UniProtKB/TrEMBL annotation, chain A:
CDD domains: TM_PBP1_LivM_like. Its main location: membrane. It is found in: Cell membrane. One of its GO terms (molecular function) is branched-chain amino acid transmembrane transporter activity. This is Unannotated protein. Keywords: Cell membrane, Membrane, Transmembrane, Transmembrane helix. It is a multi-pass membrane protein. InterPro entries: ABC_transp_permease, LivM-like. GO terms for cellular component: plasma membrane. The lineage of its organism: unclassified sequences, metagenomes, ecological metagenomes.
UniProtKB/TrEMBL annotation, chain B:
The keyword ATP-binding does not apply. The lineage of its organism: unclassified sequences, metagenomes, ecological metagenomes. It is found in: Cell membrane. One of its GO terms (cellular component) is plasma membrane. This is Unannotated protein. It holds the Pfam family BPD_transp_2. Its main location: membrane. PANTHER family: BRANCHED-CHAIN AMINO ACID TRANSPORT SYSTEM PERMEASE PROTEIN LIVH, HIGH-AFFINITY BRANCHED-CHAIN AMINO ACID TRANSPORT SYSTEM PERMEASE PROTEIN LIVH. CDD domains: TM_PBP1_LivH_like (cd06582). Keywords: Amino-acid transport, Cell inner membrane, Cell membrane, Membrane, Transmembrane, Transmembrane helix, Transport.
Automatic annotation (TrEMBL), chain C:
Residues 35-359 form the Leucine-binding protein domain. Keywords: Signal. This is Unannotated protein. InterPro entries: Leu-bd, Peripla_BP_I. The keyword Signal applies. It comes from freshwater metagenome. CDD domains: PBP1_ABC_LIVBP-like (cd06342). The lineage of its organism: unclassified sequences, metagenomes, ecological metagenomes.
Amino acid sequence: MANLSSFNLRDKGAEIWAGWSRPVRTIFVLSMIVLVGLLPFAATWGPTSFLNTPITSFQNVLVYPVGMFIMMALGLNIVVGKSGLLDLGYVAFFAIGAYTQGILSTLYGWNTWEIMPFGIGFAMIAGVILGLPALRLRGDYLAIITLGFGEIVRIVAINISVTGGPNGIPGIPNPPTFFGLHFDLMHPETYFWLVFAMILLVVWMIRRFTVRRPGRAWEAIRQDEDVAALMGVNTLVYKLWSFVIGAAVGGAAGVLYASKVMVISPDMFKFDVSILILACVVFGGIGNIWGVILGAGILAYLPERIRFISEARQLVFGAVLILMMNLRPDGLLPRKKREKITEKRSM
Amino acid sequence: MNFSVVTSQFWSLALQGLALGLIYALVSLGYTMVYGVLRLINFANSEVFMFGTFATLYIEVHFLGYDIGAPSLHGFKLVYTLAFALLASMLACAILAIIVELVAYRRLRARGANRLASLISAIGVSIFLLEGMRMITISRPMTTPRLLDKWSFGEFHGANFRIDTVLTIVAPIIIFVVLDQFVTRSRLGKSIRAVSMSEENSKLMGININRVITLTFCIGGLTTGAAAFLYTTVYENTIFNVGFNMGIAAFTAAVLGGIGNLRGAFFGGIALGMLEQFASAMLGSQWKAVTVFAVLVVVLLFKPNGLFGEAVQQTRT
Amino acid sequence: MNKKIVSGLAIAAAATLALGVVATSPASAAAKKSVTLAFQGPLTGGDAQLGQDQIPGAIYAIALYNAKNPAVKVELIKADSQCDGTVAANIAPGVAANKAVIGVIGTSCSGEARNSFPAYRAAGLTMIAPSASAVSLTDPKAPDRGFPIFHRVVAHDGFQAPALARYAAKGVTNPKYYVIDDMTTYGGPLAKGTLPTAKKLGTVVGTDSVAKGTADYTSVASKVKASGANVVIYGGYTTDAAKLFKALRDGGYTGILASGDGTNTSDFPGLAGKAAEGVRLTAADVPFDSILTKAQLAEFTKITGIKVPGLYSTTAFNATNIFLDCISQGKLTRSAIQLCVNSGTFKGVGGDVIKFNRYGDIIGGAPVGGYLVKDGVINYDAVA
């Protein structure tokens, strides 16, 4: 307990990882993927049945909120964690993806796979529209603008007719069968695999970015924007990129989500979701993919697991946030020590 | 677009916007003061406001025993009752704000934690307070008796100078003048400004940083408490989630005026109140929030530090 | 805070959770013969009041039933949906997977109902809603209808909205309507639904939508006054209705104020104070305390801890009683319950007859009553 705050599991893990040879790594990764893939059956298998969630359905909880939150937290982490921009309106991109799926599928009869690129595309366009003016500002001004954008998307959805107004859009079809896998209400596990595959894709993408030029640029911007600009990094372009990529992930999550719940309405895309996703990122360990995944997993799963305390569970959730932040301010799995710098206070 | 409403109701809208805006301004101090010294968004301030409305209600209904049907008060008794409720609400909010600082910020600051960590712990406090009050009140809205009879001083081109409207305009102005003098003149006020300019240098000058920060939260709590009292007196009701909309509005006002800046909060609040009233009248209330944010974006594009961020430098680096 | 104290707290918190885990597992081992009903509605979050007002009706009905020492006891589980379709989409499969559950009292909100249908339909689990009143839920042609499992003991908005427009303008020659809604799934459609009738009876001089939870209604009041309206209809819930009506009266508006069942709660006269006087309300729900005798009300308070029953506690009570009727007839499986609810004839607490049509609405339509606030009390006035 003494070293609780200074112990960095992430560094420990990286050390072990570095000591492994390539085949060992491959085997480890593959077995992890298989293990996670078996997760939907954990609730019914004796030794892990303690994971089961009371009242709600465990397999559905794995898809939403757990899987979706992880995906969105990863997307937000590109914005908040990698390039250090505080985005309080991430739910907007999620909503845009979801409404794209809702409108295109019910009006034009497209299926989810066809809509996916459009959902991602619209979210990215929205990211550019919001990012171009907003990213010229710094820190907390960005926070309020993004917060406002999140609210605007929701209010516009309430007030125009193509989104169904406050009633939203009912009757959104599930994705069609894919390689013999059924995506419908009776098969939440296939949905989980789909979300899992997308999470893996996002993780792979982020890792590629991180070791290449954009990753280094983001890192420089996060540490000191002025110095980065001085060294020839086009800060606006790279900030915009991180914003747009984050938006794309949110949009993809939204498309999937709408096809899962089948009915969407504006009250699903409230400010609380943005805050919760941000909490996932910080709780797990801002900037570190594995930390973010762990944090999002826990924060999404916890309120469902403690449903037996019924109405007090939100209270407990708040208390857990306070306690954990006080105990481990850098999150459960903080980023590498060398990346941890004291950020410029004027941000 | 409905311009006829604006021309016929101009003075009425302006007066109401001013009154509403000054309540926003008082709450936004809870954000702006803290931001000035800590560079952090005090997310729990919305729940401090919520707490203040319930404190006012508790004092009036349970402590002083005025039931819902109680007749309006007059003369000295009215002044005494309202003053007592005002002080109680301010005190309750100040104490809560100080506790919030201890629980959500102090330990994290001592360890030099990431600023987002404080943001999340403040959100945790906010959720805790919100849900706590929800459980205590079983989610029911509550109401206070109409202690202040809403008589009018008179009309001016349709603008009705009602006593509660006048009160919500006069009281915040007095509070702002006092606070402004305190921050610019007094020793403690100067130490707040010193810390907001440079924490390290202030430390070197022998200023007790923790005390200054506690003081800042205390002042933010006091003004938020005053706003909560005014809100409860004018609108005569409250509910556990009353802080949410108020918090967003006040935060917006703080940014509009230039966050971290006392006078910015004052004028930002007024600007927001006016904007909301006129936008509702012209475009319909459903587009109010959209208009507000659109204006905010435009303002920030041309004045990146808010309306008053540049002009008044003494409370900001 | 001291580091040790914090660590201690963390351990305590972890222990509480662990204990909770232990505490939940043996609960299902009860050997006694019993069946379970689930209540689905918002119990936490921003809309919690709606569910918190209803669930006492269900608790009361079940307590009365169990007190008679029947052969089969009934338990109630609370499925807190937060009035959120997202949450409901998870809860519904979970409730459906719980084999003990044979009926669902719910849902409270129309939005969450639509997200719950697929799971309940697949599980053959019957729903009786105390308050989900969106027209499409029982519309044979709507893609989001709840056929065949969904039923409701409340009049849908298609009945209520025209009734509200009629009742609001009763006795007014040449009514000039101003219609305001709160931008929610409930208030929006209800307010818009009054427009056709309003246009027939008089003129609509203005409409506005003000988000629920707005603090300040003075600008709306100014607009209403400027428009020269003499009938204001509000589609929304109690808290905001009280704020709006107060602002209107304080702003010098002297015409008629009217609102629907979202406002028709015993809290309303207190919240709106003097502005409540003369307000016309409609409701598909009869206030529970107006039906109960003094002794029954005392018993209700004893069982639920609630002094004044809230909105839709009557319908929640009725919905629960329909299930209890079927259970006491020995219908203990999901399919038997479904058959019983679909074909049976039941009695509401007010003596009204309840029989469902094919799509889940009460045959003949649940009556829409007109209520008038007088001296701080909501009194039944006439059929609206």
